[in-house]
Amino acid sequence: MMITLTRPWIFFISQQMEVQSDLRRFWAYAKLPLPVLLSMGMLMAQVTVADPGTSDDGVEVNTVPKTLFVVVDGIPADVIERVSTPGIDAVAAKGSYQRAYVGGEIGMPTESPTVSAVGYMSLLTGTWSNKHNVRANYGIEPNYAFWDIFRVAKYQARAITTGLFSTWTDNRTILMGDGLEAAGGYKFDFVADGYENDPAFAPALEDVERIQAVDLHVTTLAAKTLLESAPDLSWVYLQHTDDIGHRDGDSPSMDFAVRWVDARVSELWGAVQARSQQFSGEDWLVIVTTDHGRTSSNGKGHGGQSDRERTIWIANNSPRMVSPAERSAAIVDIYPTIVEHMRFDMPEEVAAQLDGQSLLSQ
Ligand SMILES: [Zn+2]
Questions:
Q1: Domain for residue 261, yes or no?
Q2: Residue 62, pLDDT score
C-alpha cells in the first residue's frame, strides 16, 4: 500500500503552506482520493505542539492533552477478563479496568439495541439511540444535531488535529458525516480507512481473513501516525473479533482472536509510550473499549438486552478514573471524559444533551 502513503505525501508537499495555514481548508480544497493516510511528519511541528492551555479555574496548564480511543469490536467482558491480554493489561496498569454498559436504560426511551454502529454512535455522541437515531448497522440516518466528539474538537478556538484509523469506512462517512455540512463539515486531518471497500486490497483473502488484514494495516498506520504526528484526538476501530464471534461464537478461535487484537493494542500503546518519552509535555489519555457483549447461549449473536450483551468494559491509562464502586460506567460516559481531559469547550446546547458524565474523578 505504498501508493496510499506516497500520493498524499507528495500532494502534501505541494500544499504545505495551505495546510499549515488551515487544515480544514486543506481537506475542503484538496479533495483527496480515499483511502488516504496523511503521514505528515513536517506538519507535526506546526499544529501539534500547542500552546499551554488554561484550566477552568484559570491556572495555566503546561501540558498538551492528547487522547486515543480504541474500539475492539464485540468482545464480552467475561472473555476479555479470562483471556490473556498483556496489551490491554499494560494500559490498565497505568489506570484502571472496569465493566460498563451499553444499551441505555431497559424499558426507557434510551433503550438502545446492542448493535455495533449503535454502540459506536453512543460513544461518539455521548447519547443513546433515541437522540443519535442510529439503531442498526445499515439504513442509517444519524441525527447530527448531537455533535460527535470530533466536531467538538474542531469547534475549539485552538487548533486541534484529529485522526481516524478504521476498518469500517461508514464510521467516518455516515456516523460522523465527515464533510457533510449538516454534520459540521470536514473534521479529520489524518485518515486511514476505505481498505475494506478497495478491491485491490488483499484480493486473494477470504472475507474474515481480509478484514483481519485490514485491521492489521489500519493499526500499523495508526501507530506510525501516533508516533510521528500525534493527532490530538484519535480513534482506532478494529473489527476482526466481531467477525470471529459471529462465525464461531464462544470458542478457542474467539479467544485467539482476542489475543490477536490485544497485540494490536500493544502496538498502539507502544507508539503512545514512545511518543510520550519523546514529548514529555504531552498528557495522553488512552481508552480501550468494546461496543457490545454477546449472547449467553453461544456467543454468536448480539443486539438484545441480556446482561451479557449489555456488559462492556473500559480499560484506560488514567489514574483519575472513578472506581466502579463509585458508580457504574456507560459507553456514553467516554465522550464527557474525553471532553474533560482535552479541556474542550462545547456549545451549551450540545453539553446539555449529553447522557453521560465524565469518568474523571478530579
Ligand atoms: Zn460490534
A1: yes
A2: 82
